[in-house]
User: Which sequence fits this backbone?
């Protein structure tokens, strides 16, 4: 596609800064705060999306003070300019934008389970507050209870009190229900913003536009025309320093009911009547509730053995730090699921995610049915190949369509072509680590991109049969740097289908 075909891309409408608020970050000294929240706030400041009345209070159990925290974060921000592996690697740190954030940072030493921490905060806070729980999941419930007990979640005089909760939200259906009940005893559903950072990705948000703003796609997005949909989130990195977290978690809990189901919702939900938050969240909840509980026979779990990553030898998962030598935790999941709605009758959805795979690819591949009748079938040696639309989420951002054309020449033979577009060719990229929109939306009260209690519980319910069956089940092995275990290939071969090779688009 040629960008000139569409004419110049109109400049975006001006966006107002978020109303004044205090952002209280629990886990101020943690990785998430340094790697993602500060860069996102910096980008928001650079875009003039924060008001003068914005302040940040960091809470953590280590010794520090305002000056020390400001110094630490300034150093980390500067270090990103040298670190090309980080999600955020600007050429330089703009002094005005960083100065705006730095001068608003205040640190409080505090234990998350000590009521004194919350009493102190209550004395310091006024007006709009967003509490961001950038902490280990075991603190979610206790912190929200402490906030409630200290009266910090009471909304009065038009001021809001909101809580952002990171994933993982529960580790199975029972724990997710218990956590929902625990937090909802302290506040209203509208006050809780359960985050899934995949929804901060522009390419994910764009799926609804691709589906519902294009007359050539909207009518065919259904079982009558679609053969199957495959969702992939493949990574080349291993478990890194996260063995202690990953061992009891595994790829299923880490990626499937949250990130992959968010992609599934975007691609599978019914059309919302409006773009209102509750309308979109209702349609997404309908979709998750329509996922049939996944039979264990329709899923494969794998674990990476030693292999290579970009030509470099890498160790097996079992040899990673903080991982048991006989661990049966999965680092790969491949599964088939069905969605019980009229739109998707008979259409299988294949989902796979894994670490240490051939390539880093997050994408959705929509394979269309071949035409029921075609004059080309008669004079071709091979069958007509199905059209495949690939929505590329990460790291490539765009779309490709593989389709059939007539091969030039005197004979009428079909040839296969791929048309692609990249967002970067059409739109000026705004710097983003993926948390900007999420933070801004929380401050402005737009819950569209956050997960509601019912959706989260329905997602856990869908994977519950796997959690049960995999407690004592063995794990299949795949070499680091491959496309996953052979059993995952067999899962699709059973249906006469195959995963698309990674990295081929
Ligand atoms: C996180 C998982 O939520 O998402 C990680 O805990 C995973 O294990 C990451 O690597 C993937 O996110 P992204 O945006 O890098 O594709």
Assistant:
């Amino acid at each position: 596609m040629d960008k000139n075909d569409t004419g110049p891309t109109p400049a975006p409408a001006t966006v107002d800064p978020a109303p004044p608020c205090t952002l209280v970050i629990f886990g101020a000294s943690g990785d998430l705060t340094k790697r993602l929240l500060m860069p996102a706030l910096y980008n928001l400041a650079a875009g003039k999306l924060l008001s003068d009345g914005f302040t940040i209070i960091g809470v953590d159990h280590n010794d520090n003070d305002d000056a020390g925290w400001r110094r630490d974060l300034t150093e980390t921000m500067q270090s990103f300019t040298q670190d090309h592996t980080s999600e955020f690697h600007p050429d330089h740190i703009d002094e005005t934008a960083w100065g705006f954030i730095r001068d608003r940072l205040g640190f409080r030493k505090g234990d998350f389970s000590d009521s004194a921490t919350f009493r102190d905060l209550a004395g310091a806070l006024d007006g709009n507050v967003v509490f961001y729980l950038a902490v280990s999941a075991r603190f979610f419930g206790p912190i929200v209870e402490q906030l409630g007990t200290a009266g910090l979640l009471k909304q009065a005089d038009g001021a809001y009190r909101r809580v952002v909760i990171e994933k993982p939200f529960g580790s199975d259906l029972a724990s997710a229900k218990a956590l929902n009940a625990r937090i909802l005893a302290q506040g209203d559903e509208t006050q809780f913003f359960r985050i899934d950072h995949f929804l901060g990705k522009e390419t994910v948000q764009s799926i609804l536009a691709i589906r519902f703003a294009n007359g050539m796609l909207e009518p065919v997005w259904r079982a009558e025309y679609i053969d199957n949909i495959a969702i992939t989130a493949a990574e080349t990195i291993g478990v890194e320093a996260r063995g202690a977290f990953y061992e009891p978690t595994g790829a299923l809990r880490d990626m499937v009911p949250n990130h992959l189901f968010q992609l599934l919702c975007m691609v599978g939900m019914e059309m919302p009547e409006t773009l209102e938050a509750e309308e979109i969240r209702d349609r997404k909840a309908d979709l998750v509730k329509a996922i049939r509980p996944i039979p264990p026979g329709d899923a494969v779990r794998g674990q990476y053995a030693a292999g290579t990553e970009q030509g470099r030898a890498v160790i097996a998962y079992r040899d990673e730090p903080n991982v048991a030598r006989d661990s049966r935790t999965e680092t790969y999941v491949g599964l088939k699921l069905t969605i019980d709605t009229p739109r998707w009758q008979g259409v299988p959805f294949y989902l796979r995610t894994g670490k240490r795979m051939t390539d880093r690819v997050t994408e959705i591949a929509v394979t269309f049915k071949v035409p029921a009748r075609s004059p080309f079938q008669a004079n071709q040696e091979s069958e007509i190949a199905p059209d495949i639309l690939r929505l590329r989420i990460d790291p490539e951002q765009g779309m490709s369509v593989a389709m059939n054309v007539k091969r030039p020449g005197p004979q009428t033979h079909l040839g296969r072509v791929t048309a692609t577009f990249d967002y970067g060719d059409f739109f000026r990229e705004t710097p983003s680590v993926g948390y900007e929109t999420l933070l801004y939306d929380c401050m402005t009260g737009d819950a569209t991109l956050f997960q509601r209690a019912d959706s989260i519980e329905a997602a856990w319910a869908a994977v519950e049969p796997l959690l049960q069956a995999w407690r004592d089940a063995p794990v299949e092995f795949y070499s680091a740097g491959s496309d996953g275990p052979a059993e995952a290939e067999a899962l699709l071969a059973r249906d006469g289908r195959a995963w698309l090779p990674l990295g081929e688009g």
